[in-house]
Amino acid sequence: MGRVSRRAFAVAALSALTAAPRASAAPAPAARPPRRALTEMRGMWLATVVNRDWPTRQGLSASEQRAELIRHLDTAVRYRLNTVILQVRPAADALWPSAHEPWSQYLSGSQGRAPGWDPLGTAVRQAHARGLELHAWFNPYRVAVHDDPARLLPSHPARRHPEWVVRYGGKLYYNPGLPEVRAFVQDAMMDAVAKYPVDGVHFDDYFYPYPVAGQTFDDDAAYRAHGGGFSTRAAWRRDNIDRLVRETASRVKKIRPTARFGISPFGVWRNAATDVRGSDTRAGVQTYDDLYADTRKWVREGWIDYIVPQLYWNIGLAAADYAKLLPWWAEVAKGSRTKLYVGEALYKAGDPAQPAAWQDAAELSRHLALAEGHPQVRGHVFFAAKDLAEDRIGAMARVAADHYGRPAGPPR
């Protein structure tokens, strides 16, 4: 979504697909409550880190960049989506004229060089003109997808405050354990929220970084200075992320009360073998233990407006079965003010490197059919924009034909 390295999660070999859900678990469309037929999240992520979706390459002219962006918005409309989640702070940088951080290199090809236009402002205006919501997607702590501070601008905050930065796994990160870092990244993000009428503020799955074998995230000094009240370093790290979430939610509501705050975490909170409250999975990554993100708590406590767990696995996968994770998350969301949307792996559909299930154009449509049996599921978000535009095997066309026959507004 940085969702480039997140794909490293290793799963067991593909098992046979489970049978289709019982008819009683998936009522016919006519039986749906009206709100579900008329208001549901139909979103797509539009990633800019390493030019994943947009712009197609660095250094395009302003008019070329704008034209590509407009095409993505038009594609969303064509598939009757209603929300675009645009990555505007991919790596401690900005896709708007920020008061805190440099222009992103993914625009001009050179960090700090103005692209000659206002991408975020244009995106908001053009999305709204098409009836789309525009959610601004921020990565809180990633500084760079390399580990050489000298490649950053001399004026970059990470250069001016080297004590804020941790090298880990070939990348640079701000240290979540420093209160001054937490305050700064919020200031940087809120700059965009204050300047533009965005409909949402969105985090992805990167909090503490994904584990890298044989490496240690060096936050010893921060732990000595700030972790005294905690029984373990893990508990202190989770509290750091909890504070980021609560404080960001509060600041969003204060600055732009109409905007919603949502997070799209990795899809497994904890395995049941680790915690009886966990899911029936055998995931190699657990957000609670490895990313120090207590995603279940955020929902149960109602700290965030919506959550979009990345359920990027097919129905029947032994290690992480979509058909088991979906009801687990529905139960977590039950009775909470936090709305549940489901992150869908459109990027896998038709990819020859993926298991057989993803070569079937109907796999994603079956996901949505399964979700219809769980009233807590209020919509879906698809990763990501270039895959929507390409639609290799017609999986998104199948979703639209089967489920998006009528326009729908996003739930509020």
UniProtKB/TrEMBL annotation:
Gene3D superfamilies: Glycosidases. Keywords: Hydrolase, Signal. Residues 1-25 form the signal peptide. One of its GO terms (molecular function) is hydrolase activity. Pfam families: GHL10. The keyword NADP does not apply. SUPFAM superfamilies: (Trans)glycosidases. Residues 40-354 form the Glycosyl hydrolase-like domain. It comes from the Bacteria. PANTHER family: GLYCOSYL HYDROLASE DIGH. This is Glycoside hydrolase family 10 protein. It comes from Streptomyces viridiviolaceus.
